[in-house]
Amino acid sequence: MTETIKNKGVNLKTKNFERPIANLNKETAGTTTKALNTLLANEYAVFTKTLNYHWNVTGPRFHSIHNFLETQYRDLLEIMDNIAERVRIIGETPISTVEKMKAAMDIDETNGEALGSNEMLDDLLFSHMKIQTHLKEVITNDKLFENDPGTEDFLVGLLQKHESMSWMLKSHLD
Ligand SMILES: [Fe+2]
Q1: Number of folded domains in the chain?
Q2: How far is the CA of 74 from the centre of ligand 1 (A)?
Q3: How far is the CA of 73 from the centre of ligand 1 (A)?
Q4: Most buried residue among 51, 62, 146, 163 by CB atoms closer than 10 A?
Q5: What pLDDT, in 10s, does the model give residues 111-169?
Q6: pLDDT over threshold 60, residue 3
Q7: Is 43 among the domain residues?
Q8: 18: CA distance to ligand 1 center in Å?
Q9: CA–centroid distance, residue 61 to ligand 1 (Å)
Q10: How far is the CA of 108 from the centre of ligand 1 (A)?
């Protein structure tokens, strides 16, 4: 049964609500989505790198770094899922193809086979710091969150997650 037939003759109180977030206008939703999609693409870049290093790390610390990076890429997968779903909650569409991810990311890919374990962890930490900077730029744009404190809170939570992941990476290098 299509929506049209199902709702025929029914006066839905919510029929003029364009999106699941109250009072969020189209322009702000568009700007927030652009920021979230860039973030999603960068998370995808770091996720792929982390997986790459999990596979290709060698040396005396192999076992611990291999396992550590597994927990990190699993966390990044969950982060990506949450960002894409936040875009849906805003009422927009997340980037959903590898091609579009590649076009939107501004974190460079690296060849894991050519790096030593400390260079891998250093590159990951550098990437997480870049995401933190991007997140702070978005979070401090107060105008964006006047009618969308939920997304602001979501991004602050994400920043905390990246700070924690950065701490764990940095602790391996100190
Ligand atoms: Fe694995």
Answers
A1: 1
A2: 10
A3: 10
A4: 51
A5: 878 899 999 999 999 999 999 999 999 999 888 888 899 999 999 999 999 999 999 99
A6: no
A7: yes
A8: 42
A9: 16
A10: 23
Residue 107 domain boundaries = 33-173
- 3-class SS letters over 103-142: HHCCCCCCCHHHCCHHHHHHHHHHHHHHHHHHHHHHHCCH
**Mean pLDDT (the chain, rounded):** 93
The CATH number covering residue 96 comes to: 1.20.1260.10
**Amino acid (one-letter) located at 126:** F
Helix (H, G, I), strand (E, B) or coil at 148: coil
Chain-centre distance for alpha carbon 100: 14
**Secondary structure letter of residue 19 according to DSSP:** S
> 55: CA distance to ligand 1 center in Å?
7
Asked whether the beta carbons of 104 and 43 are under 8 A apart, the reply is no
Compute, in angstroms, the gap from residue 59 CA to the centroid of ligand 1. 17
* This model's pTM is above 0.90: yes
